[in-house]
Amino acid sequence: MKIVLMFAIASLNAAAALAQDTDDPYLWLEDVGGEKPLEWVKAQNAVSSKALEAWPDFAPIHDRLLAMLDSNARIPFVSKQGRWFYNFWRDAEHVRGLWRRTSLAEYRKPEPHWETVLDLDALAKSENENWVWHGAECLYPARERCLLNLSRGGGDAVVVREFDVVRKRFVENGFVLPEAKSSVSWRDRDSVYVGTDFGPDSLTTSGYPRIVKLWHRGTPISTAETIFSGEATDVSVQAAVSDEPGYRREFVTRAMTFYTSETWLREEGKLIKLDVPEDAEAGTWRDQVTVKLRTDWTTGGKTYPAGALLAMDLKKFLQGERDFELLFTPNARTSLQTLTSTRHHLLVNTLENVRSKLYSLTHIHGRWMRAPIDAPEFGSVSVAAVDEDHSDDYFLTVTDFLTPTSLYLASLDGPKKDQRELLKQLPAFFNAEGLEIAQFEAISKDGTRVPYFQVSRKGLALDGNNPTLLYGYGGFEVSMTPAYSGGIGSAWLEKGGVYVLANIRGGGEFGPEWHESAIKQNRQRAYDDFISIAEDLIARKVTSPKHLGIQGGSNGGLLMGVMLTERPDLFNAVVCQVPLLDMRRYSHLLAGASWMGEYGDPDKPEEWQWIKQYSPYQNVVKEKSYPRVLFLTSTRDDRVHPGHARKMAAKMEAQGHDVLYYENIEGGHGGAANNQQQAYMSALAFTFLWKQLR
Fold it and tell me: For the chain, what is the mean pLDDT?
């Protein structure tokens, strides 16, 4: 599910919850755009910039990172819309970016000719707006009309505007929505399904649309027909159209929590509910219904395991039959990651012990046939259909920690079946000679085996003196997999650092059970896993607390805050990015209410009892000695409230702890709105780490 939020409600959400914690002396920092908080931010930024820019490492790291981010040698990933292949591109000349297109024949060339469709820098200048590109949805099948999502400064809230890609201009009197956390989907050329801020009581407590309407061209949105209304306590409601070769279906989805939902098929104005478990993911492929399970499901006289993928004839399913075919069966160390459709096949991307495995599924004579597809040993792969209406071609992206990312064109049928055409490859942005990838396991507090990847020099001296960066996330069933990073490679590995990627519980590396074993009252398991990896690195003498640093963002920023307060003895540097930290108030700030399925509800006394045990903001104290910490966040982050980082930094500073804080005024939840900002904030982080861990 794509999370979209509205920056404009940040102060309102904060104000609504002020009465809860009047004993918190730093509540004033939750006023996102207030004059006094921004003065505090600017003062903190000045201190951090001065301290880190003066360090000899900063300038060379920054300049090299920016050169890589702006490099024309980067892979311009594309998606096919109609007859064109589209790409969005930023570089030094085009700071905000170009939306551009080319043909496949041109794309095959080392230097394709690109046709500019929209110059975002020119648009921003002409309209005096700091537009940040947030994508486009184009009308099936010709894809000549698109709904563009434009953000002011990088926040999740967007302005929606209809655009004609043939004439390369906005449509006069076309579909337009003001800035909001909208969900919009084409129904046909003259109507769209829309969920947005329709006024009072139209949003959920999470800040998403509660109502979805059908809006016809040329009519005021106030007259749009209401299709479905959810509850205020839901996460969101949305409607969308699924267009497949020979099949067109309309769906309405109500998400009650982050992990539970109800889906209806809309036919002739009537809603038909899909009878699947609320925590399952239902979809369609041609005449089939597909169901991905999060928990065991007993139906039709059979029990299917959590993490399984099922399919059967949709018409028979709607008639009450439950004769599913099992397409994927998980085990303790495997999980289903993605499902991608081509003209005649499904591409299944799985993880086996955090290593990618691919295979295809083909529906022939009423049965599904499975065939393996080669994948690298340590690498990660992703697949995307080129044109599921007309071909079985697909793009295959292959990456690992040390091998520059490659993009291939492959096919599941025809004369090029099982062949891969190399289309693009990153250059070597850093010297990987003498480096190696290894996979280890740590034993967590409860005996669980927790894997992690280590990238380091061959023959690494196990003397405890190696500067080591441990990165983690551990939440929302997100898998941490190997990937090529010119930034990590050039700013850390090439300079002698050890890089470690943790696969702790809460993630999706081993399916939904791996995730659900560390949510709510069991959240501490994720933190115990991360601690066990740190202790294993120290026990193996890869590093020592003096030379061990950690980094994480968003939910990973919460992980950093917990490590800071629970085990300050293990680390000497903490980089905490766009974090959740005040878990007493998180559910009242921006999208926080939507994450109660992950963390629990702090307003329920029985749940606050276990949340407060790890909440960093409540557990940081004056009497303890903490490693130095760098907080990085964004004023325009309308997903995780910047007040989390602001308040934690202010509280720690007042207690006398060594804290650096930097808040980018733009950037959204990603922290940066353009390459320059991204390079700057990354350079701050790497400089800080080297300064602390050498």
Answer: 94
Q: Is residue 475 part of a domain?
A: yes
Cα distance between residue 500 and residue 354, in whole Å: 14
Confirm whether 669 is a catalytic residue: yes
Sign of CA dihedral 628, 518, 455, 465: positive
- Helix 35-53 to helix 58-70 angle (10° resolution) is 110
The number of domains in the chain is 1
Catalytic annotation present for 411: no
Q: Which amino acid is at 269?
A: G
Supply the pTM of this predicted model: 0.93
Are 13 and 589 within 8 A, CB to CB? yes
Residue range 624-641, pLDDT digits in tens: 999 999 999 999 888 999
Cβ neighbour number for residue 242 with a 10 Å cutoff: 15
- Nearest alpha carbon to residue 448 among 332, 600, 542: 332
Which residues are CB-neighbours of 76 under 8 A, at least 6 positions away? 87, 89, 112, 424
Q: How far apart are the C-alpha atoms of 165 and 143, rounded to whole Å?
A: 8
User: Does residue 162 sit within a domain?
Assistant: no
Which CATH number goes with the domain that contains 518?
3.40.50.1820
Tell me the DSSP string of 98-110: EEEEE-HHHHTSS
Distance CA 586, CA 217 (A): 39
pLDDT at 378 over 90: no
Residue 8 reports pLDDT greater than 70: no
- Per-residue DSSP letter, 42: H
The beta-strand segments (E) located in 189-224 are 191-195, 211-216
State the Cα torsion 677-680-683-688 to the nearest 10°. -110
**How many residues are given for the chain?**
694
379 neighbors 400 (Cβ within 8 angstroms): yes
Q: Looking at the predicted structure, is the pLDDT value of residue 194 above 50? A: yes
Write down the pLDDT at residue 375: 78
The pLDDT tens digits of the residues spanning 290-332 come to 999 999 999 999 999 999 999 999 999 999 999 999 999 999 9
Annotated catalytic residue within 183, 547, 669, 682: 669
| Strand spans (E) along 386-495 | 393-399, 406-411, 420-425, 435-443, 449-457, 468-471
Of the candidates 554, 587, 594, 682, the residue annotated as catalytic is 554
> What burial letters (b/e) apply to 54-89, b meaning 16+ CB within 10 Å?
eeebbeebbebbbebbbeeebebbbbbbbebbbbbb
| Chain CA centroid to CA 599, Å | 18
311 within a domain of the structure (yes/no): no
**pLDDT tens digits, residue range 128-160?**
999 999 999 999 999 999 999 999 988 889 999
DSSP 585: T
CA pair distance 314, 311, nearest whole angstrom: 9
Q: Count of alpha carbons within 13 Å of 548, Cβ hemisphere only?
A: 26
Q: Which residues sit opposite 442 in a β-bridge?
A: 450
CA distance 292 to 286: 17
Range of the domain at 625: 33-66+429-693
Judged against a pLDDT cut of 90, whether residue 337 lies above it is answered with yes
Could you tell me if residue 299 is inside a domain?
Answer: no
